[in-house]
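FAQ: What does the model actually see?

It sees only this:
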Amino acid sequence: MNKYLYRIFLPVLLFVFVQNAVAQEPTTGFEEGNNQYVMRESNLSDIGTEKKIKPFTLGAEVGASIDMAGNDLSTFDVDLFGGYRSSSIKCLGLGVGLHNSFSSNRYYIPVYVLFRSNLLRNRSLFFVDFRAGYSSNQMCKGETQGGFFGAAGLGINLSVSKKFGSHLLLGYNFYQVSPFTDEKGAYQDINGNHLVSIRLGISF
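And it is asked to produce this:
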């Protein structure tokens, strides 16, 4: 478990440091009479009216999920998504992921409907994230099974502008998994896999 946490939080800290360094809004100075004024826009100040926001968004996320049941099914996650957006809806569309196990040949490929919305209409720091769809799962080499995929999470807007956004998402994931026999011949009596996840994402 400790090695999984190390692999997760080191990239998280690096990403937050880099994106805060490059995504800062420029500072503009101007004079009025004898007074000097300095203006700086906040990270959330560009979430304005709907006419300022493109009606379509594309994004990507990278992160990891920890198996809550201790079945050695923790995963490294990559997701792509796209859909409609407005001033309050961050994304209503479709997503696809590749969630690969850290320590085995097992993986999940979920395809899902994504709904993501700010908690407040304008300049919201937090948002909610819901996903539901179907996942194709390889639980044993050469054998694939599939079933329901669902997820729910709470996100933090790290930086938002009219053209670019970044976020941190903490969530819960569920995969419908049936019992299977692994490569060593051991019977795995698993009925569903429950994981907690942390992901960093960007959107355009």
